[in-house]
Amino acid sequence: MSASALVTGVTPDLDLDIELKAFDETKAGVKGLLDSNISTIPRIFIDPLDDYPLLSSSRQAKDGAVVPVIDFSDVGSRRRKEMVAQVRDASEKWGVFQVVNHGIPVTTLKEMISGALKFHESPTEEKQQFYSRDLNKKVGFASTFDLYSRKRANWRDTFRCHMAPEPPSPHEFPSFLREIVPEYSKCVAELGETIAKILAEALGLPLNYFINMEWLKTQSIGMHYYPACPQPELTQGATKHTDPYFLTILLQDHIGGLQVLHGGNWVEVTPIHGALIVNIGDFLQLMTNGRFLSVQHRVLASHAGPRVSVPCFFMAGTEPVRKYGPIKELLSEGDTPRYKEVTIAEYYMYHRNKGLNGTSNLDDFKVEGLIELSRRDHLGIKQLPET
Ligand code: OGA
Ligand code: NI
């Protein structure tokens, strides 16, 4: 089926599933759709559950605060204490911060962005060879990972690759990504290690606590492409969500559009040349018993674009049966664990089945907030941790 089979505007009598499938089967993503010269967006991109028109957004929170920017220069010096305190504060109050002077050369960041851009602007036939919705494949291109579970599409395409523990072999990448992706992956892994130590220190844990838990061992890199959108008020680049992993380090270009929910307001993560964005994921919120926040975030669609971003997700150790729960050492007397223990496999399966529907996955793993059986069935979830 071709992109022209897609219906534009709101036509309630047509089956949405057929339209989603038609879009998927073009294997051309949103960019392919746009290349077919549409001026209105198909209804599969319009999500009635999106609340963004109802909420204001701005550069600042109500109290005038902006997403914290932390300078990582001289991380081993006397400044370290101050840096650790800033990371602690940002992780507790925001769940996100920007890092400058992190040590990754600006040329590497630029090459990574241009490589991602080049991929998405390659001829459709070349991208189609990579098209796959199987998230377990080492390398894959697709639009909207939760297309069928959420029954809506986001205004973005993604090329992703699992870089650790076992990277894909070079010939699995397009030639122009063969050098830059492993190079960027190595740099960001080193930065991940630095941040893992700072986070442990901020919590009063041994420096290598998170490193020994192996949560830097699995690394997945996404290359998102958010095309300019003819009707940005009707759709979103990424629906509001939290990242289901431990930690995300995100590189964004100069366009903007990423926002975080803070104190009931959407606050922009303003692009800063050479900076990287760090956000806490669900597993870190779970392990810190809610002390560090897995921040809700979203990406607006815009007339400006394309926008390119490159998230690096640090996902887990390589042992699928290991259970993670609130860290005992962090529970002071009288403090009870707020979350159940869960394995990575169980949590990710839950995330993938649920998709980005705007609610936090973690809510369903709260000790007091057990998910009702009917909802479990609806989501197709077979395994949940016992209470
Ligand atoms: C993500 C994400 C934000 C962005 O990939 O999980 O939130 O700016 N990306 O692309
Ligand atoms: Ni995210």
Instruction: Output the strand order for the largest sheet.
Output: 2-3-11-8-13-6-5-4
**What's the gyration radius in Å?**
20 Å
Taking the alpha carbons of the first and last residues, their distance comes to 47 Å
Count the beta strands: 15
Short description:
With 387 residues, the protein is of the alpha+beta class. Helix content is 28%, strand content 19%. It has helices at residues 16-26, 29-35, 80-93, 106-120, 124-128, 147-151, 180-202, 209-212, 282-287, 344-354, 373-379; strands at residues 57-58, 69-71, 96-100, 139-142, 157-164, 219-226, 236-241, 247-252, 258-262, 265-268, 276-280, 297-300, 307-314, 323-324, 342-343.
